Amino acid sequence: MRTAGGSVRARLRGLVAASDPGLLRLAAGLRTVGSIALTLAVLSAFGAGVQLLVAGAIAAMVSTFAIREKQRSQQAVTLALGLPVALASVSLAAVLHSRVVGGDLFFVVLIFCAVYARRFGDRGTALGLIGFQVYFMSLFVGATVSTLPTLWGVVAVAAACSAVVRFALVPETPAGILERLREAFRARLAQLVTAQLALLDAGPDESDKALEDVRDGTSRLHETAMMIQGRLEEGTADAAMARLVQRRVADAEIAAERLGLLLLNARSAERADTLTLHLPGAPVPPAGNRLPAGDEATATLRRDLEALRLLVLRPVSQGTGTGLAQLRNRLLGYRDEENLPKASSAVQDVFRGIGEAARAVLGLRIALGAAPDDADDTPSTARSREELDAEDAAIDASEESAEEPKEGLERPTTRAAVQVAVGSSLAIVGGEFLSSQRWYWAVLTCWIVFINTASTGEILVKGYRRLLGTVLGVVAGLLLAGLVGHHTWTAFVLVLLCVFAMFYTAPLSYTLMSFFVTAALGVLYTLLHTYSLSVLVLRVEETALGAACGIIAAAFVLPVHTDRRTNDLLVTVLDRLADVTEAAVDQLSGGDPAELLDKARDLDQALADLRAATQPLTHPVTPMRARRDTARYLVALLETCAYHARSLAAMAELLPTHPSIAADPRLRRAGRRILRNIGSIAARVADESAAVEVETGASIAALLENELPGASRYGRITDRVLRHLQRLDEAVVGLARPLKVPVAAPKR
């Protein structure tokens, strides 16, 4: 029973870790709710009234969520600096309470400074956010000069409670976050293997859903790998350890993605296109007879995928054990040709992929400090360990170069500050016409729609989601307000639940976050005895006004149109793709070693930025369906290119230490056409009048034909390199058509 209970708890931990990587959302929600609850408890002990309790709750929430730095010492400094900023903000709000024009002008200046402060990093962003939100809180509770000393005390209590919860009750260290992220990576890797197993067994009616699950699992695994990448520097003891974990996570990610592609290819009537694994909605290729349902090789494949999943799920703190060690040895044995089961070449490729995935899992366990379990090693397993040890010994720390920042109005923070200031001015004027008491809701919405947005289209989508969440939240607010009436502590409990849900769902859905914010405000209005249906309707009107003012400012003041932003980001992605490809091909051709994993992650980050920027184009409500499909197709093609570039980079990283891989100078010639085509496409995207064209011709393998009769062309490892180069070449040429880049006729 104990074992069964432990197994259930382990599965639950895995599910939680996979759904919330690093438990970041859970920690943010608990930390914010804890800060508010502790503040309310302290203030109520001093007999504070409802108005002061509301002010303390808002101040505690702001003091908690505004701070985003990763090091605890930096968080403490920012929190300490935030207190005088908050005190100054509430003081000015109280002094300017009766001066309408002066107060409005100062609010606009404060908004400009708060947004402009983002150029100074996380600390500037936090202090600007605290200054703005505390000023807003003062307007919400009607701060006056007579109540100022009491409000100072409330803000100080809120800051102190926030510090207690952050550093004592819900502590969080970079090393702890990284450890939980690695656990999430392991859980998501196991989920992906499970999805691949389901794809193996899926019938004709289930195959599309099974493939979609594999796509989602691949995307979620990549998302977690990127999150780990962002935490390595702070969460590891030294740069060498960071590089080691970075490499092992990249190996596991690439091996899992390749395994899915090989499995898809094995069950298809013809070689599956890599794009199928990245394009949402793409159908499963027609099934073939290379993977018969009752075949012995298929049964073995199913058994080994399950064994791989068990290896992944084994906690790093525990050894593998005799039974799992035998499974591991069998899977690693597939890296040797003589151990492959009798099957078609496509199915044998899947077994090879399982062997490489098992090697990646072994490397990841070793990098994360797994207990030694080499007593039962077979020769193939021992050889895999030797390869991993040699790679680990060759790791050197590297320094990253910073890009030259833009100046003046070209700087995103400066442009956004001007836009928000103009939009807020419009919101103040329009909000005053709607209500001289609640006009600040329009300003708040205008401010919020500019956060983490960089183009007119993104602001339009965010404003729409904000309005939708607000309308739904008004309905919920009506129900909750009627439910709690004027029961103060019941209302505060509901507010805490809404706040937790707001922070837990914020990274998932902006609409849900807006819903919970508005529902909580309905309860707060009840506490302040200002609740009515007209107030909540006014909230919707002010929200719509604020969103409209933000969109107008974004469209007419220093606008960054969606097309321009996506084109700029597309050029960046293509440049990063060329960097990775050129460095990998050069190293595989015998050139000097380069920091390939860093270049690959730069490519991944650029692609993530582009994917986010295309959301206005791919949103379900967009009326331009053809444009939406084109944007999705382009992003899927670029993800395909990134997969092959990452794979080339990973193999090039193995070159100095892997006994089976040798440099081949001919690869440099094969990569020239790919690089020229990437450069031509980037030039055309940057300048539509550029006279460029994409070249096609013989296959990449044909470019490497050896001129010496009877000489061996290349081995199995080089053949894999060629496959990635060939698919990368095809994907790059595929980018030309939707981007309207001319394709030259093949040379004869």
Give me the secondary-structure topology.
Blueprint: H1 2-19, H2 24-45, H3 50-65, H4 72-95, H5 100-116, H6 121-141, H7 148-169, H8 174-201, H9 207-235, H10 239-266, H11 296-313, H12 321-333, H13 345-367, H14 379-393, H15 412-434, H16 440-449, H17 456-484, H18 488-505, H19 510-527, H20 533-556, H21 562-588, H22 596-613, H23 615-618, H24 625-654, H25 666-686, H26 716-736
Quick summary:
The chain has 748 residues and is mainly α.
List keywords for this structure.
mainly alpha, globular, 748 residues, disordered N terminus
For the record, give the distance between the C-alpha atoms at the N and C termini, rounded to a whole number.
72 Å
Overall geometry = globular
**Tally of strands:** 0
Largest sheet: none
Report strand %: under 5%
In the predicted model, the low-confidence regions spanning at least 5 consecutive residues are 1-5, 396-405, 707-714
Order of helices and strands: HHHHHHHHHHHHHHHHHHHHHHHHHH
Query: What would the average pLDDT be, to the nearest integer?
Result: 82
Please state the structural category.
Answer: mainly alpha
Number of helices: 26
Q: What portion of residues is helical?
A: over 70%
Kindly provide the radius of gyration, computed on alpha-carbon positions and rounded to a whole number of angstroms: 29 Å
